[in-house]
Amino acid sequence: METSNRIFELADKKYPEQRDFAAEIGVAPSVVSAWRNKKSESYMKRLPQIAEILNTTVEYLLTGEKKDLMLTNIEAMRL
Q1: What is the pLDDT of residues 19-74, one digit of tens each?
Q2: How far apart are the first and last CA of the chain?
């Protein structure tokens, strides 16, 4: 699955109206429409903000892999 598909899979659940998602990010609805229709990948520079408002991680948006943040922190402390 592509990054944009993961974004909209989550965004559609949280924001029934595309314009509400656009407003939360601070872009015009036409920009979000371009992302959805794969006419632009300008969302890449906003991934940290998008991940935060969608309650996920940039890693998940990019790869689809979910990691337990607590487990990741514990593993990092062992190094």
Answers
A1: 999 999 999 999 999 999 999 999 999 999 999 999 999 999 999 988 665 555 45
A2: 32
Q: Are 50 and 7 contacting, i.e. CB atoms less than 8 angstroms apart?
A: yes
44-74 b/e (C-beta count within 10 Å ≥ 16 → b) = eebbeebbeebeebeebbeeeeeeeeeeeee
Q: Specify the DSSP class assigned to residue 55.
A: T
How does 26-36 read in b/e, with b if 16+ C-beta sit within 10 Å? ebeeebbebbb
- DSSP H or E segment with residue 59: helix 58-63
